Every structure is written in structure tokens, then in C-alpha cells.
């Protein structure tokens, strides 16, 4: 899926995450819930050569798969391969990772937690639910993200989720999709 999204960006089309997050060339981004790394990869492409993305994954299995894939996979698209190599994949809990970061050290902090209500059309994620971290997002994690982010904290979640309101996110993308984005902006 990331390959299709990057291809669309190269063709001048938009991407919901890129638009919602406001990521731009040179940005430092922390993806607190790496999963399979698709969003980290798209963010890395958008941040460009001068930018960086750190992707944190709590599941050891997913971490190893994504870390090795980002290092070794060859897509046949040089822009995509370069973006993959720029993603720094870390294993651990996002709260602990955020606690270890300096104030205002990232432009964007991003969360895409495992949805409590799965998106039925997302067949690629179904087998991974057993390995993924499925706890709801803690208020303390949002507080740490606010401390670390210079420009925005971004949340992707099911559109019927109460997480946007619970944590003070302003919805910035509402569409016919089952997924919405929310932002806490600082600038």
C-alpha cells in the first residue's frame, strides 16, 4: 500500500496522512505505532532527504519484520527505497520512547493505534492483530507527545472512535472512509 501512495505522491496526487499531518521536506517525525511501517514510509518520503522518521513498534515480531524490510527490501522505485532506508525502526513502548526524547525535538508525533473496531476492508492487518499492541492510547502518551512535538501531534483512528474527543484532537480529515485524522497543532 505504501508503494501505491508514494507513486501517487510522485504523480502530484495527495495523500490523506501527508495532508493531515502537514509534513514537509526536512521534518523530523516520530511514528509511535509503526505496525507494518507503511505510514512511516510515506512520512519519510514526504520529509525527504533532509528529514528523518523514527518508527517505534511495541511488538517484537512486527519490529523485526519492519526493521529488516526497511533495510533490505528493494521495490524497484529508487525514491521509495531511499525513503525506506531513512526510517529508523525502534523496538519498545511508545510512552517510554517519548519520555527519552528532548522537548520540541520532533516536528510531528504520529499515532495510529490498532483500532478497537477493525476496518473490515483492511485484510492485510487481520492476521497481525494477534501480535499488535492493542491497548487504547494513554493520556500520558499524548502529554509526552505534546512535549516532544514542535508543530503537531496527529492521530489516525476509526471515525466512530471517541479517542479524538477524549484526547483533544481536532478532526482535520473527514471523508467517506472509515478512518479519520485528528491534529493537535502548535503553530
From TrEMBL:
GO terms for molecular function: rRNA (guanine-N2-)-methyltransferase activity. Keywords: Methyltransferase, Transferase. It holds the Pfam family SAM_MT. Transmembrane segments: none annotated. The keyword Amino-acid biosynthesis does not apply. This is Class I SAM-dependent methyltransferase.
